[in-house]
Amino acid sequence: MELLRLYRYLTADSALRTLQGGKLKLGFVSKFNDPFDSIFGVGPELEAYPDDVAQAREGMLRGWDQYYGILCFAELRDDPLMWAHYAENHRGMVLEFDFPLLPEAGYQLVKVKYRKNIPRITMSAMRNAGAKVNVSFLRRLVSTKSHHWKYEKERRLLVSLEDESVTASGDHHFVPLINLRGVVLGQRCETTADEVREMLADGPFKGVPIYKTHISMSRFQLDIEEEPSSC
């Protein structure tokens, strides 16, 4: 089976909770940090109705939240901007995963495309906003972001909340931590490699390599080296 190595940037606290709990917390489209994320655009015939469009957009996002959660990953583990923006100013961690390129039941992996224009929606589709999710349209919207975000090189995993692997705790939803292939500590991370190893020692990810980023001596880049055990 062909696999794709992807990376999830996290704050130190989030990474430690993920490793300790053995599960990944799902996100939802209505809670994304970019207000343009996963929304639709309209043509001239609808531009005269901005309030109706805004209401339909909100209804569609809330409706999708009832059916799908999302996990965001990057194609690179050494991007300084990603470390600054999503890993607590280099104090956090990156978790490495392998994913099959072919979709599995309940899971869909999509590659984000970066564009200057928002995907448009038809009049009939807007009237049905908030109804049961149209998966192909959801895939189109969540896989399209502004060109300003292209440095992220993002992949998104769509997870059906009806899949048996999904568990809920209050308003939060989780999937099991599987296919973990490595942990990268940020250059400013206060957690040590040995502390992570001890945390993983009694579970299925014992022996997973632990890395740490270092500032290059000559270039604006991060070097990543495996951390030896002190034991």
Give a structural overview:
- This protein is an alpha+beta fold and 231 residues long.
- The chain has one domain.
- Helix content is 23%, strand content 30%.
- It contains 6 helices and 13 strands.
- The two termini are 36 Å apart.
Quick gist of this model?
This protein has 231 residues and is of the alpha+beta class.
List the helices and strands and how they pair.
Elements: E1 3-10, H1 12-21, E2 23-25, H2 50-65, E3 68-74, H3 80-86, E4 93-100, E5 107-111, E6 113-115, H4 123-127, H5 135-142, E7 144-146, E8 154-160, E9 167-169, E10 172-176, E11 180-185, H6 193-200, E12 210-215, E13 222-226
Number of H- or I-type helical stretches: 6
Major sheet size, sense and barrel closure = 5 strands, mixed
Strand content: 25-35%
Please, how many domains?
1
Report low-confidence residues grouped into runs of 5 or more. none
Q: Please give the number of β-strands.
A: 13
Silhouette: globular
If you compute it from the alpha carbons, what radius of gyration comes out, rounded to the nearest whole angstrom? 19 Å
Question: What integer is the average pLDDT?
Answer: 90
Strand order of the largest sheet: 1-4-11-12-13
Overall SS class: alpha+beta
The level of helicity is: 10-25%
Write the H/E string, N to C.
EHEHEHEEEHHEEEEEHEE
| Terminal-residue CA separation | 36 Å
Descriptive tags:
30% strand, 5-stranded mixed sheet, alpha+beta, globular, single chain, 231 residues, 13 strands, 3-stranded antiparallel sheet
